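Renewal narrative, Specific Aim 1. Our central claim is that a sequence can be written position by position from structural information alone. The example that follows is taken directly from our test logs and has not been curated for this report. It begins with the structure tokens describing the chain, in the order in which they were read.
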């Protein structure tokens, strides 16, 4: 998993697997592009919600993450 962390730091945004995105979608969660945390109560098209883990406004809904091409599968 060390290489994943490195890649996420090098890229502008981290990426997620399709399974992670589908899980977030099923739980109505968003994913933080800064730290990767799940945030609940996010619409699939949520954008720039505040992350409770890292306080960055980088939480996006599952649909938005797919649209942004951040799915690695
Ligand atoms: Zn975060």
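The sequence written for that structure reads:
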């Amino acid at each position: 998993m060390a290489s994943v962390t490195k890649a996420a730091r090098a890229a502008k945004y981290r990426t997620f697997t399709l399974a992670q995105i589908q899980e977030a979608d099923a739980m109505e969660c968003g994913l933080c592009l800064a730290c990767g945390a799940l945030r609940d109560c996010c619409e699939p098209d949520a954008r720039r919600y505040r992350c409770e883990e890292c306080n960055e406004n980088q939480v996006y809904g599952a649909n938005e993450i797919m649209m942004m091409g951040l799915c690695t599968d």
